Amino acid sequence: MQRHGGPPPMLVQLSDPHIVAPGRRLLDRVDTPSLLAQAVTSVAALQPQPAAVVLTGDLVDRGTAEEYDHLRSLLAPLPGPVWLMPGNHDDAAVMREVFADHDELQPVGGDPALAGHVLWVRQTAGLRVVALDTVVPRASHGQLCPARLGWLARTLADEPDTPTVLAMHHPPFTTGIGHMDAIGLRAGVPELAALLQRHPQVERVICGHLHRPITRRFGGTLAMTVPSTAHQIVLDLAPDAPPAWRLEPPGYAVHAWLDGALVSHVVALGDHGPVGLY
Ligand SMILES: [Fe+2]
Ligand SMILES: [Fe+2]
């Protein structure tokens, strides 16, 4: 994908909105719907407009139809295509019912072992976006089973020359935040690293789950997590760090294709006062 003097094609990544039913608050005090609405307003005002928006999991908190209905109304103002994938707080079956018009959520054919997983490939402005489901039903940690790794291997082999972004909920690396690493990706990580080494077209692995921005080299490419649009996990690298969160500024990522590479920006949401000019 080349740039021809115009603005770079942009992919927006929103993550971990943890939407609750109308009138409720998460953890007794986080107004996750209002925080997602703030993110949606910010994305809708971006110039240029993004080519697509991808949500990397934990879309709602309890996986109920009421929560997904609420999410649907909150996402409605977003421009262009919006692509969804589950995290450990989601229920893929309920998500598929409420978002029945989202083609990317349709089960992939072939291997019956893949039917319960959300796996998709979308293309926008020459950039290929591949969603790899890391969810273990009714568990907080993630894994990559042989069936999912096989699907990814076939998918990447289909277009070895197209710049690709791989989206996953659980990041494929240890972060140093112990209570989150305890519910990290437990199986399939070395296999994924070896697969990505063979596919240098993968420009970035974009993840959620950690509720804060973290980057690491992985499998010959760069893997990163992004802030939640709601609450953030406290940065504490002590081995016995308690499972703590707080309302640090929420945010999202803008991945722009620029001069033959993917440039990833993290945007902090909130009222930061007027813009100044140098
Ligand atoms: Fe989350
Ligand atoms: Fe998660």
From TrEMBL:
Keywords: Hydrolase, Iron, Metal-binding. It comes from the Bacteria. Residues 12-213 form the Calcineurin-like phosphoesterase domain. SUPFAM superfamilies: Metallo-dependent phosphatases (SSF56300). GO terms for molecular function: cyclic-nucleotide phosphodiesterase activity; metal ion binding. CDD domains: MPP_GpdQ. Belongs to the cyclic nucleotide phosphodiesterase class-III family. This is Phosphodiesterase.
